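Summary for the steering committee. The consortium agreed at its last meeting that each partner would contribute one worked example illustrating the joint modelling workflow. Our contribution is presented below. We chose a case with several input lines so that the handling of multiple components could be demonstrated. No manual editing was applied between input and output; the record is shown as generated.
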Amino acid sequence: MKTRTRHDPAGQDQDATPGTRERIVRAASVLMQRQGYDGTGIKQISQEAGATLGSVYHFFPGGKQELAVAAVRRGDEEFAGILREILDGEPGPAEAVVAVTRSLAEGLRASDWLDGCPVTATALGTAGRLPDIQRAASSAFAGWEGIVAEMLRAAGIAEEEAADLAGMVVCTLEGAELSAQVSRDERPLLVAGEQLARLIALSLRGGLPAGS
Amino acid sequence: MKTRTRHDPAGQDQDATPGTRERIVRAASVLMQRQGYDGTGIKQISQEAGATLGSVYHFFPGGKQELAVAAVRRGDEEFAGILREILDGEPGPAEAVVAVTRSLAEGLRASDWLDGCPVTATALGTAGRLPDIQRAASSAFAGWEGIVAEMLRAAGIAEEEAADLAGMVVCTLEGAELSAQVSRDERPLLVAGEQLARLIALSLRGGLPAGS
DNA sequence: GTCTATAGGATGATAGAC
DNA sequence: GTCTATCATCCTATAGAC
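What follows is the complete predicted structure of the assembly.
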């Protein structure tokens, strides 16, 4: 699926000396995550990537829009990987969700509250205007939900309830990271983690259906 | 606090024939909500408001940045009003939160998924770059949390737990609205409403502390 | 307070040499 | 594939007449 112009002996995408296209996508992902679609210039991306403007348009003939879609997909895959990694390392779903919030809080603090969700800023500024970007973002959310839902089902929660809970988890993580970033305070994320854990524990015990 | 150039007999800010400054702030709020800070031009704002560029800089000598702060504050007040109105009309906090999600879903659908949270897009695109806007957005979130916390305390939830729950509610609403807008589907909001209601019901019964 | 005109710079995108 | 030069357009902000 990915066009590699350089021979890759290991057959994997390592970080070592990434190709030009790869550097452009990475730079676009980081910059648009921080500044949004309209706030990020192609010239800025090319400089940050150590490439020229010509190279950008060589790899992305569709221009800024095509590049933004690639950047969102990249952010999608990155967070999906982190999510899977954390979830696999925790004993249960409640602990796993708390661990994710802690990881997000660390990432925010380490970047001085600059690096939030890798798709939100790009998607939000282009909401009813650039459908390709919107679709890529929507697909990212759906994928993350699927990962969380799988974990919940593996823990014994019924199919339908797991899907609802997973949606709730992803939405809350999204909102809590946003709130933490804007207020430059990790508390929203930590509180969200605790409350989500409470909710998951409740479902694990099969208690208190929604209507009561 | 507000400079009114026109005589206002009722002593209130009615919608009838709003002054130029008011029209500019409204247009800026709507446009930045949809397109973000960098995606919205001052010229576009002035046209939408039926004002000239000179008028915009007359009322907002600080330029785009000052105007964006006013727009975010306006969005803050508007949603705070809606929130208070809905919360007052519901019998309990669980029903109230569900009613809010339904209202948000209706607003999204009615605008063809264009009008999401009135502060998120503006704040997110300017995150570590324009502190004044960030502070206005942070203050908005804090205010909404306060409104929700007051409702929860009035329902008998202890001070500290009410604060945490209110933070959770606002974060989840934020994330669910974002998710619903991006996926053009109201389900994230409705699921979030149900799950938040479950969580609130749990707190009302004093059950299942976070650590268990 | 309202309006027009314009300065000064940045933007997305293209052309074409190498 | 890489690079530079350039076009046409847009932007924020200002100046100054009315």
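Chain B has a mean pLDDT of 93. Residues 69-204 of chain B form a domain with the Tetracycline Repressor; domain 2 fold (CATH 1.10.357.10).
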